[in-house]
Amino acid sequence: MSFTSQPVPSVATDKPPHVLISGAGLAGLFLGILLEKAGIPYDIYERATEIKPLGTRNMYRIQDQYKSSPNILAAFEQLGLYEELLSFSKRSIRNAFYTAELEVIGRIESSPAETKTVGYDRILFARPELYNLLAKKTPSNKLHMAKKIVAFEQDQDSVTVTLGDGTTARGDILVGADGAHSAVRKHLYKILNKQDLLPESDTKEMTKGYISLVGTTDALDTAKHPGVLREDSDVWGVIGDKDTPYTWFAFAVPGNKLAWNVVVQLGITPIADEQFKASDWDTQQNQVMMDSIRHFKTPYGTLGDLFDATPVDCVSKVFFEDKLFETWNHGRVVVIGDAAHKLLPSLGAGAVNAMQDSVLLANHIYDIKPTNHENIKTALSEYKQERFNFIKDQYPVSHMSAKLLFGHTLWERILRYIVFNWLPNSMRAKQLVKDSAYRPQANFLPPAPKRGTMDIIPQQPSKRIQRKQEEAKKSATTAATL
To answer: Is the pLDDT of residue 278 over 90?
Structure first.
């Protein structure tokens, strides 16, 4: 008698899945806060040794400045974080662009009508403030420092991760929220490549087109920098000429400080290419680049004035990398944020998209019931299906924005002149409405209050809540017939 081998079905339980999160950046912390609200167990593993307070060296070397858009603010309201976010933010009303000699290229100013339509102001803040807010809301027993996930194994019943110190942890789902050079993604791709399951495009390196130095000053002399006293924030950008392939920006944040950003296009100037070859953690290399451009003009003096007010060990160097990965999930493993899609950050979209990923992934994890291998695989696949095309559509937009703000080829300069001088305000307002319509929320929490007069793109309802409602309706119908 012969027997046919059949896969052993995974164990099913009514308990929610235990989620292991690699990386305590914005995506990982935001996901943890959402799971906390949903009553789903989780643990966050972070390679850094400690949560460092604002004002010390930035532990992730991330951009220190940040502009939030309406696309994520509704989720902040749901979580009760919106008012606290506003407490360290300023409204972004006016944008002015100049040549290297401070001749006006163009100005853009938001109107009250736009705010009324969209429902939210665009706000500006120092990014470490946001990080501190999310870290503060994360229970300390859920956040494990100096614990980098370096490998994992998964089977029908669980996923087991190996940490850098040799210890292990076991859960039901592994989320790689560990950035553009994600160890989780690399290990997953290594496994899939051996099995010939990895698309060729996912084996290619990310492209690097720009380098950015970013920082936030200490409190400034308000006599020299009167703009920092305004309740709202003026954003100014200076775009260098063909002999100065740099773009430099700054805007005011609370505390009489300026957040600044200097971007240089690779392949045009030797110093940028030297910086590209150097370590992005090297303070001395950052200082060399800063010394070479400190004479650049700004509306309030020179870049050197801002550099002198910023501790050099708080200055970060960031590569503007660009890649949309095709493979986001396999089995019990999924990647989010920069680990799945690295956008050029010219629209401030990187952090917004990372947190939107967290919202939608939390929705799909919440829908898992009972918890078993097949339901987990289905949930992670459906998350990617819901999210992928929206992310894909943003890539050409981010490329165009980068060309407008940071590009220094002849064609890019011509394009910038046309957009700044000939683009009608009505077209810009129409694009703003289109960009603001996508606002994912946690579908297991009460929705945020309706803001603005514009229509919002509807999102998928919770399958789990729908099942509960259908069961309740059936029970009520049965009871009525008895």
So the answer is: no
Average pLDDT of span 414-440: 82
**pLDDT given for residue 418 in this prediction:** 82
Which element (helix H / strand E) includes 341? strand 341-342
- For 349-400, the pLDDT digits (tens) are 788 999 999 999 999 999 999 999 999 999 999 999 999 999 999 888 888 8
Cα separations in angstroms, 188 against 274, 332, 341, 360: 32, 11, 15, 22
pLDDT at 95 over 80: yes
> In this prediction, what percent of the chain has a pLDDT beyond 90?
52
- Is 342 in contact with 239 (CB distance < 8 Å)? no
Predicted confidence band of residue 444 (pLDDT cuts 50, 70, 90): very high
Bigger pLDDT: 283 or 389?
Answer: 389
Burial code (b: 16+ CB inside 10 Å, e: under 16) for 235-253 equals bbbbbbeeebbbbbbbbbb
Where along the chain do its domains lie? Answer: 19-206+321-463
Residue type, 423: L
3 state DSSP class of 108: strand
**Helix/strand/coil for 23:** coil
Listed residue (48, 19, 52, 15) closest to 36, CA to CA? 19
Question: Taking the CA of residue 326 as centre, how many other CA atoms within 13 Å lie in the half-sphere pointing to its CB?
Answer: 9
Question: Around 441, how many Cα atoms within 13 Å sit in the side-chain half-sphere?
Answer: 23
Is a pLDDT exceeding 50 seen at residue 62? no
The residue among 261, 251, 244 whose CA lies nearest residue 228 is 251
CATH of domain 19-206+321-463: 3.50.50.60
Virtual torsion, Cα 98, 406, 280, 334, nearest 10 deg: 130
φ, ψ dihedrals at 295, nearest 5°: -80, -5
Pairing mode, strands 143-144 and 42-45: parallel
Summarised one tens digit per residue, pLDDT across range 156-188 is 999 999 999 999 999 999 999 999 999 999 999
Query: What's the alpha-carbon Rg for the chain, to the nearest Å?
Result: 24
The distance from CA 324 to its chain's CA centroid, rounded to whole angstroms, is 14
Burial call 439-461: b when 16+ CB within 10 Å, e when fewer: bbbbbbbeebeebbeeebeeeee
Query: 3-state DSSP helix/strand/coil percent for the chain, to nearest 5?
Result: 40, 25, 35
- For 140, 234, 292, 394, the CA distances from 258, given in Å and listed in that order, are 31, 10, 21, 29
